[in-house]
Amino acid sequence: MHDLFRRYGMGLTYTFVGLTAFWLLVLVILPDFKLLEASFRPYLPIVDVGGPKDTYSFNNYMQIFGNEVDFNSFGLHFEIPARIKVFVLTIFYSAVVTLVTFLLAYPLCFYLAKVASNRSLPTLFLLLFVPLWVSEVLRSFAWYIILTLKGPLNAFLMAIGAIEKEIRWVEGYSPVVITLVYAYVLFMVFPLYNAMQSLDNNQLEAAEDLGAPWWKIHWRIVLPHSKPGIASGAVMVFMLSAGSLLVPAIINSTTGNWFTQTIQGIMMEGQDWNAGAAFAFMLLLFCTVAVTVAMRVFRVKLSDIAK
Amino acid sequence: MNTNRRILGHIYMGAFLAYLMIPLFVMAGAAFNDSKLPTVIPWKGFTDRWFIDLWNDNRIWGALGNTLLVALAVVAIAVPVGTAGAILVNSISGRVRSILYGMMVAPILIPGVVIGISTLLFWNQFSVGSGLHLSVLGQVSYIASFVMLLVLARLQSFDQGLEEAALDLGATHAQVMRRILLPHLYPALGAGAAISFFQSIENFNVTLFTRGGADTLTVYVFSKVRSGITPSINALALIMILITLSAAIWYEINRRRKAKIEAARESEARRAEALEM
């Protein structure tokens, strides 16, 4: 701090501090506090705001209960409030997306880091980057076209004789998972590649010379070495998936609702901003807890994820 | 590494690229299909009517204008704010630094829905209604983090001795900033501006909740997908893909040419050195 004054003088230093304070206070922290505060207040007509009815309560949060529906999957069967079910399934399927992106990305990254020739790497990366330049709304839209009942995927599968009758893809959570995997797989690829790239080839050769089978080389050397990359990729993909509104909304599978769609419904169709705030805060709280736990488990720091 | 597995690797790489590209081709193909619904099968013949439809769609041009306006505003705010944050974080150390750093990085991980709703509620209490101005503020809150990270990385390679020297030689603080620090940061500022611009164009979640009645391109495409869609969206998609693709290729060609010049210079230098010996 003292150093800043010496280098840039009073005026510039205060400008830096002022801009940073504007960002962190006005754009990040205070709005989040307002979100928390609003989430405890009732939704009232404008004349009653600030009046005797405007008291703090947990009523908005209680809205997550009620409207019991059947929960009938994974061999379990019980009654559960509809919104809690959506919340739980959103988290579960975001985890599935994260796992699938990891399984897809792992061999690819190993290939890029250890097999591909240095000369072809720039071209390969250029090609990998192409979908990232296409906006997310259009990428989801592409899958919307592919997955329709009379769409190219069913036509292709029938042409090669893999299926007899068209499969209804847009049902339940699978179309959402398929599209999310496509939309976010590259957020797993890049951190994982960075981690694997720093692995010394000699270690692999030594293991091979000593007679380790290929799966053991991966299990004991490559996987532990790529842990920071896996962690940051997983956190990124999980957060993007759980917070995605665009993908589930465009795929629009009526039996595959995402929690963000619940929030959107409350905010836009219900116009109940206070309940919307409560639900948004729940999502924020969950995400914070999830990131913290992931960082503890994998022993990585926020600065590693940010890379 | 035996050859079989190497070949398997090449095949997997090819399959993965196909997986990434095919959806884009499907989407582009549907732009030329003479069918009311966007699809590639059944193929009903080649047409350019979706491009003409797109050209005549006034709402889309309005949405495009809004998107560019918002993106420019985001760049104009996020770049100075993120840079100031990076300089500040770079100049302190210890516990305060890690807390401040954490607060600056965290917005990247906050779900866009949360940012959108909190921005809306916060400004609404001061009677600032929703609209694109709120979208700008909401987007800056997390896009500035990207700028901060880029500038901070660049600051690591900055030699502070240069500033000391300038100050000793009687430069004013403003001169130190303008003539020494900023030129060093230019590459990071440029990259930050580009990332801010594209992140802003991409943004959906924050914009949806804060936009009021105004359209941006993503929101417009989204509303089109929900309510009676025509392949003119595919035409738009194809145009956007082509623009970004040509930008990417131009960038890559530029990069390779520079690398070539660099390599030529290096070999020249080596030859000169060898001659001197």
Features:
A: 307 residues; mainly alpha; two-stranded antiparallel sheet; 14 helices; 2 strands; B: 277 residues; 11 helices; 0% strand
Descriptive report:
The complex is a heterodimer of chains A (307) and B (277). Chain A has a two-stranded antiparallel sheet with strand order 1-2. Chain A has 14 helices and two strands, in the order ααββαααααααααααα. Chain A has helices at 2-39, 59-62, 82-115, 121-133, 136-147, 152-159, 174-197, 201-209, 214-225, 227-242, 246-251, 259-269, 273-298, 302-306, and strands at 68-73, 76-81. Chain A has one domain: MetI-like (MetI-like fold), CATH 1.10.3720.10. Chain A is mainly alpha-helical and 307 residues long. Chain B is mainly alpha-helical. Chain B has a domain at 58-231: Orthogonal Bundle (MetI-like fold), CATH 1.10.3720. In chain B, helix 2 packs across helix 11 and helix 6 (132-155) crosses helix 8 (173-202). The radius of gyration of chain B is 25 Å and the shape is globular. The model of chain B has no long low-confidence stretch (mean pLDDT 86). The chains are: A mainly alpha (307), B mainly alpha (277). At the A-B interface, helix 1, helix 3, helix 4, helix 5 and helix 10 of A face helix 1, helix 3, helix 4, helix 5 and helix 6 of B.
Short description:
The complex is a heterodimer of chains A (307) and B (277). By secondary structure, chain A is mainly α. Chain A has helices spanning 2-39, 59-62, 82-115, 121-133, 136-147, 152-159, 174-197, 201-209, 214-225, 227-242, 246-251, 259-269, 273-298, 302-306, and strands at 68-73, 76-81.
